[in-house]
Design a protein that fits this description.
Keywords: Signal. The chain is an alpha+beta fold. It is built from five helices and 25 strands.
Length: about 425
């Protein structure tokens, strides 16, 4: 209930800021429309991102993050005369910024999770700058073309599976995606200058930064930074045959289990179970997600329209959300935002705190909860027929196309079963 009270008071304050007060100071001109270049300070690195602002006033303004061909839109609020608040849609974080007198924007990327003492990322942004890392014509000519598929060997404190890099270079311009057993990085954009390369990506969750070098033997060495402290080093070898572990074999039922069993509350606090009449005799898709997880929201953006199109064929779906706070009221807020944004018409349940160990305890039939998202498909008899770990989005090209083709083929077959 503290969260509800906090949100209510916040709403009152924001409403007051936007109220028609004849004694309020006149509003300053709104932030300039057009293309902007922002730069996060991430430890010692400068991590650039590009965005566009459209709308002459905050009531109609749209903030669009640009990453290669990807576009992500967000709503803009003006607070007072010279401050902006840009909520990162379903992610409980925001860009909180000030419009400086010289037209620049300065501020920080800030977590909004109640009582979460996360480190904010400071940034600055300038209008009219469209480049990523270096202005056109100022980079050194690339010494190599690193387009292709790369097998990335990861070095970290704990054993970590290799990753795959799919890169595309055109002159100095570099775009790509990094795939892992839990999903993908979303589209990254950067540059190759001499024998070095840089990539960055910011779509709402914490920014990603990759810096590397092409060695004399044409192998790669570098580092991937996710947020402030999550830095991992890698070596890369070009390998057209490189593959990740089979995502259909990583998570499975323990010996002796054929079915999945759970009883969890929905967003109204009502307990829901797979044994409920609603799910008997139907194919059921169980999606294990979190609103803080970009691959989860990408999976939801695929599943929700698919379900809305196919729900009359004898198929149901359930999303189980594990959130950044173990509180149903907070989950009602975050998962409710997800439901609204993606027009989710299937049940959404709250599993608890976002922790793989907790998720494994709530779903004891699974060998382990390896990744958010994990998608489980159950047949008409209530038996688990398929478990898929992670999610690879459209930016992965053929991997995404193959996933969609197999999804439709497998679901069609299960729905057709008596």
């Amino acid at each position: 209930m503290k969260t509800s009270k906090h949100l209510f008071l916040t709403g009152l304050m924001v409403a007051g800021l936007f109220s028609n007060n004849s004694f309020a100071a006149p509003k300053k001109p709104f932030v300039k429309q057009g293309i902007w270049r922002g730069v996060f300070t991430l430890s010692e690195a400068q991590v650039p991102f590009n965005f566009e602002l459209k709308g002459k006033d905050p009531e109609h303004a749209v903030f669009t993050l640009i990453n290669g061909s990807r576009r992500d839109d967000f709503h803009v609020q003006r607070i007072g005369n010279d401050s902006l608040f840009i909520k990162m849609n379903t992610y409980d974080a925001a860009l909180v910024a000030k419009i400086e007198t010289d037209g620049r924007i300065t501020g920080e990327y800030r977590s909004l999770v109640p009582n979460f003492r996360g480190n904010a990322l400071p940034f600055t942004a300038e209008h009219g700058q469209s480049y990523r890392f270096a202005e056109a014509g100022t980079e050194a000519a690339p010494a190599y073309n690193i387009s292709g598929k790369w097998d990335l060997k990861i070095y970290s404190k704990e054993p970590t599976p290799n990753r795959i890099g799919l890169l595309k270079q055109n002159g100095n311009k570099l775009t790509g995606v990094v795939m892992s057993v839990v999903g993908d990085s979303r589209e990254l954009e950067g540059t190759v200058h001499g024998d070095e390369f840089e990539l960055s990506g910011f779509t709402g969750p914490s920014p990603i930064y990759i810096k590397g070098k092409v060695n004399d033997d044409k192998s790669l060495t570098g580092e991937i930074s996710l947020g402030i402290y999550n830095n991992i080093k890698f070596d890369g070898e070009k390998n057209a045959a490189a593959e990740l572990p089979d995502p259909y074999k990583l998570t499975y039922l323990k010996e002796g289990y054929k079915k999945l069993d759970f009883t969890l509350p929905d967003l109204d606090g009502k307990n829901v179970s797979l044994s409920d009449d609603k799910y008997k005799g139907k194919v059921v898709i169980v999606e294990i997600i979190g609103t803080w997880c970009p691959n989860c929201t990408d999976q939801t953006s695929f599943l929700s329209p698919w379900y809305n199109k196919n729900k009359d064929r004898g198929v149901e779906a359930i999303a189980i959300g594990f959130e950044q706070k173990d509180d149903l009221e907070y989950a009602k807020y975050t998962l409710g935002k997800l439901k609204e944004k993606y027009n989710i018409q299937y049940d959404i349940l709250f599993g608890g705190i976002a922790d793989k160990k907790v998720a494994s305890e709530k779903l004891p039939a699974l060998n382990r909860m390896m990744a958010f998202p994990t998608t489980i498909i159950i047949d008409r008899k209530g038996e688990v027929r398929q478990i898929h770990t992670g999610y690879t989005g459209e930016v992965t090209g053929d991997y995404y196309k193959d996933y969609v083709a197999k999804w439709n083929q497998d679901l069609d077959a299960l729905i057709a079963e008596k």
